[in-house]
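**User:** You know discrete backbone vocabularies at least as well as I do. Would you mind producing a protein record, from residues through to fold? Write it directly below this note and I will take it from there.

**Assistant:**
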Amino acid sequence: MPRGGIWAAGAGSRAPLAFTASLILPLDCTPQEAALRSFTAALALRAALADYAQPDALSLKWPNDVLLNGQKIAGILLQSHGVMAGQRGHLVIGIGVNLRHSPEPDSLEEGALAPTDLFSVTGQCPEPEAFLDRLAPRLAHWEWQISQNGFAPVRAAWMAHAAKRGEVILARLPNRDINGVFDDIDDKGNLILTTANGPCAIAAADIYF
């Protein structure tokens, strides 16, 4: 779980403060291929949120966050079990969406994106079950796409909504920080930054704008 974060669903209120769900997806593939489901889940989540918010206001932050007006409204967490080529395993895709509640700013790590919620921006707050009805067919669509056509169409669609493309961002790795211009993601889902030393492919990092 990135930076040890958790989803806070706002217990104690009768209103639906957050949508939280996990999809258990049977897979027969390598761990690297399974990890590409962060992109399919992000595309599905963005499409579901676009039923309530202006589509142009929604963007995707590598590798697994959805932004509304540049602020974090939703995130995705992946956990695999027994996923490897030639062996049937399963992937758990955890999804959290701020519906009517977002974390307090002082609870966030320094430099983290400010959070937002759907109700404060749009005045809409669907019931979690209704939001699931919007999300489920989008998840099925993008799983079909990657299963039948590979990562290429997923990559193209994700890049069309990528936040901060062409701008300088910071990638924080365990042992170093890398500043560079966000140019692309490659066919393995790696983030491609153009740095002073040339292109740099990053498989995993915390990203700061």
